[in-house]
Amino acid sequence: MTRFIDTQSLVRLIETIGLASFLQQLMQRIEGDFKRWPVFDKAPRLASHSKIGVIELMPASDGRLYGFKYVNGHPGNGHKGLPTVMAFGALAAVDTGYPLLLSELTLATALRTAATSAMAARVLARPDSRCMALIGCGAQAEFQALAFHYLLGIEQLRIFDIDENAMTKLRRNLGDIQGLDIVACADTRQAVTGADIVTTVTADKTHATILTPDMLEPGMHLNALGGDCPGKTELHAEVLRRARIFVEYEPQTRIEGDIQQLP
Questions:
Q1: How far is CA 25 from the centre of its chain?
Q2: In order of start, what are the domains of the chain with their CATH numbers?
């Protein structure tokens, strides 16, 4: 029997488990899969790019299960009352091809992205990190804030977005989170000054330089998420040259990611 998970079902599951516990278990499961990374049959995303966005298929298999995700990225969707990112997917048994699961994955994608960021920061950032700068205040920014607060103990969030309404919305949505102080900043430089961790999660489909070398501080951990299509970047190339770089899957990141700037 093929099971189906819709957004409401996932929300009910999170409410039952609790968001902090859900993120913790999700991070542990993702970490477990990275520990068996060579087992997976994987390939760069099959992408269809346009001037206004991208639609991608993401397949993978561990020899027992085969799964794929359909995901889009359309930065202008907010003006149309639609999410920037939407996703769905399927899971099948390799030995029979039988579809075991169909799932709406928009919410799951947001949670997975945030949990993966926290997993990486737990290994790469300073253990005593308590302050994070958040550049870009769209929907994914809120998931990043929650994951870093619950999983790494971030206590202060210093936020900036060129859209003041986005900052207002983030503060409104996360204002009741106990133990999380949210500070709105006038620009990127003010936000990152003194931060232990800097998360960039901007949406504009452009070759941008959100962070420049003069903004770096010793020991700062950069969690750069927004460079998710060819020609779209967030970090000045010199930032990359000065840093130790860790990526999830290099063949993909060479196509979509800040290291597309490097030889």
A1: 17
A2: 3-108 (3.30.1780.10), 114-261 (3.40.50.720)
